[in-house]
Amino acid sequence: MGFIAFLKTQFIVHLLIGFVFVVSGLIINFIQLCTLVLWPINKQFYRRVNCRLAYSLWSQLVMLLEWWSGTECTLFSDEATVNTFGKEHVIIILNHNFEIDFLCGWTMTERFGVLGSSKVLAKRELLYVPLIGWTWYFLEIVFCKRKWEEDRDTVIEGLKRLADYPEYMWFLLYCEGTRFTETKHRISMEVAESKGLPKLKYHLLPRTKGFTTAVQCLRGTVSAVYDVTLNFRGNKNPSLLGILYGKKYEADMCVRRFPLEDIPQDEKEAANWLHKLYQEKDALQEMYNQEGIFPGQQFKPPRRPWTLLNFLFWATVLLSPLFTFGFGVFASGSPLLILAFLLLYFKASFGVRRLIGVTEIEKGSSYGNQEFKKKE
Questions:
Q1: Predicted local distance difference test score (pLDDT) of residue 284
Q2: The pTM of the whole model exceeds 0.90
Q3: Ranges of residues in the chain whose predicted pLDDT is under 50
């Protein structure tokens, strides 16, 4: 094991990375709070500023994937589709099977210049998570309780507000509503059987309300829907902790582009279109499991230096005073100061671990585990 590989396994290094992310995130959140005064003066300028502030935070996580772990992402698509990336507003449909599927999506948005303006339909609980939810609030992310009767007006209003967004945005939808687990899959397929819908092997039954509403509200703004099916070579099941430890993974993403005019305007027909899409996604996963490859040309968009430079900037700004302060504490010889410093260290360790825990499958939401069948 080389020295760099050794460093990647050390918890103190992980803690320093976490420190940079958390403290820079709080600074960015404070700056975002200050930018609220821009909204009534120049809404579009406010949006552009917050896109760049969000980029400064999210790109630190992308840096871990691209530069720290060296994970490679390969696109399987066609040249015409790849040429549209970063040049239009789109809705992204991504399978939700892995802890770092969002991070693989983010690395693609970064490489095509839309990381800061990427959007998601997120569960409302995340709004109260420091850094993640707070940053999303200033980005006008649409939050929902995942109870359609309560969410309908909020979701429609939030989507319509994005109609004049000045930066090209990729709006991510996890149509399955929650991350895949065997328990959720079993219950989901019981629901499919009760509704007379084809069963899926690798996906949960898509929940159509969010998709049909997004298509209706963003029609005229969004140009296309990108269907993305993600898998990892070697049947790996990567985690954010694995990335933090420097483990390298190979992600394959099959991307298909559907012009929005090809998607039915009628809600029921659009829902049927989505169900058919998920049957195709299931077939793609089956093909990948059997052949180890997706159909289409292979593209490897080059990683850009900005994520690394951004992290090095924050690390320089924040770690220099931290090291100076720590040295001063231990040099003082004061047991009280040293104890307080160590207590702060353990609290920070706990906080970083809790943030990582947000992505873990076994600590995911219980949404979709209901033993009774509900109509959408």
A1: 95
A2: no
A3: 361, 363, 371-376
Alpha carbon 213 to chain centroid, angstroms: 21
What pLDDT is attached to residue 355?
A: 59
Ramachandran class of 333: left when φ > 0, alpha when ψ lies in -120 to 50, beta otherwise: left
147-205 tens-digit pLDDT = 777 788 888 999 999 999 999 999 999 988 888 888 999 999 999 989 888 899 999 99
Q: Which two tokens stand for residue 137?
A: 């609030």
What is the chain's Cα-based Rg? 22
**Residue 277 to residues 95, 196, 217, Cα–Cα distance (Å):** 12, 16, 20
Judging by DSSP bridges, how do beta strands 72-77 and 90-94 pair with one another?
Answer: unpaired
> What's the confidence (pLDDT) of residue 375?
44
Q: Helix crossing, 335-357 with 11-34: angle to 10°? A: 80
The Cβ of residue 118 has, within 10 Å, a number of other Cβ atoms equal to 25
Residues 6+ apart with CB under 8 A from 210: 121, 144, 155, 173, 175, 177
Burial label for 311, CB within 10 Å (0-12, 13-18, 19+), is buried
Could you report the per-residue pLDDT of 31-60, keeping only the tens digit for each? 999 999 999 999 999 999 999 999 999 999
**What is the chain's percent helix, strand, coil content, to nearest 5?**
60, 10, 30
Cβ atoms < 10 Å from Cβ of 292: 12
For residues 327 and 238, what is the distance between their CA atoms, to the nearest angstrom? Answer: 37
| Spatial separation of the C-alpha atoms in residues 116 and 157, rounded to whole Å | 22
Written as one letter, the residue type at 274 is: L
